[in-house]
Design brief:
Largest sheet: 6 strands, mixed
Distance between the termini: 48 Å
Number of strands: 15
Oligomer: single chain
Structural class: alpha/beta
Strand content: 25-35%
Radius of gyration: 25 Å
Order of helices and strands: EHEEHEHEEEHEEHEEHHEHEEHE
Number of helices: 9
Length: about 300
């Protein structure tokens, strides 16, 4: 008889088993301090520190795994969560895997908006539930043509009038003689759980995971900037380096004229910030990446 005290109590996180979504999810977890320890590239599970286990499955199956309790948490596309419609709770938007679910018609068609489609229009899609809900909410009756892939060919061979498919850059549509006419939803990777699971987690591990992931996401697009600045320019330096709660000012050993100013700045503002600091007489400017940033 199995001793129930030996039961593995680690939380199970379902992750995509291949593709860019899988790579980005593993990178995010590693930066948060949860590096996957796998025996081989074909492993179906991996250790994630002391508190978590990764289960590698198809991205589209992750909502079902989480909803049915086979996994406690999951990382997958919000479009797949919407399509599954299993009452999952999105805990955190992860900022990668961004795309949109869009209606696309042939280049030569007369339709420029979804509202232009006639009642009974045939729509080829691998997102039938999401598509049906979207059009029903707008009082539009459509005929769904479920497909598992390569929806772009459907309007050209008479299988459907338009398609509903995921779009990233739009290059695939253009290559196949299609153009977007409406966006149904914007999607990106999300961390999900069963409804109420996070709130009921007395161990605090879900809250700790969220805090770790948020610290990584907060650090993206930020840089840590250090510079030796003239003391007589400090008031103007504070305007250039607002930081999170203002710059940190530190005395420089054996220097009566300069102090060291440290601050977190937006990546997009680094170029302008350095130029402004140079105008104020700053020296020894150093910019580094930030791995994690806690509020």
């Amino acid at each position: 008889m199995t001793d129930m005290t030996d039961r593995d109590t680690r939380l199970r996180i379902a992750l995509p088993n291949k593709g860019r979504l899988a790579d980005d999810a593993l990178e995010l977890l590693e930066r948060a301090g949860l590096e996957a320890s796998v025996a081989s590239d074909r492993s179906l599970r991996a250790e994630l520190g002391d508190d978590f286990i990764a289960l590698f499955v198809r991205a589209k199956d992750i909502p079902e795994f989480v909803a049915d309790g086979a996994a406690d948490l999951g990382i997958t596309g919000s479009d797949l969560v919407e399509e599954a419609d299993r009452g999952l709770e999105p805990l955190l938007r992860l900022g990668f895997g961004r795309c949109r679910l869009a209606v696309a018609a042939r280049d030569e068609s007369e339709w420029n908006r979804a509202e232009d489609l006639p009642d009974g229009a045939r729509i080829a899609t691998s997102f039938p539930r999401t598509t049906e809900r979207w059009f029903a909410a707008r009082g539009k009756r459509v005929e769904l043509v479920p497909v598992s892939g390569a929806a772009e060919i459907a309007p050209h061979i008479g299988v459907a009038d338009v398609i509903v498919d995921l779009v990233s850059t739009g290059s695939t549509l253009k290559m196949n003689g299609l153009r977007e006419i409406t966006t149904l939803l914007e999607a990106e990777a999300v961390l999900v759980a069963r409804d109420g699971f996070a709130a009921d987690d007395a161990s605090g591990r879900v809250a700790e995971l969220l805090a770790a992931l948020e610290s990584v996401l907060r650090a993206r697009g930020r840089r840590y900037l250090m510079a030796n600045v003239p003391k007589d320019a400090l008031d103007r330096v504070k305007e250039v380096l607002p930081g999170i709660n203002g710059p940190t000012i530190i005395d420089v050993m054996d220097s009566g004229r300069h102090v060291a100013a440290h601050a977190v700045v937006a990546k997009s503002e680094v170029y302008r910030t350095i130029a402004a600091l140079k105008q104020l007489g700053a020296e020894g400017i150093l910019v580094t990446k930030i791995e994690r940033l806690m509020p």
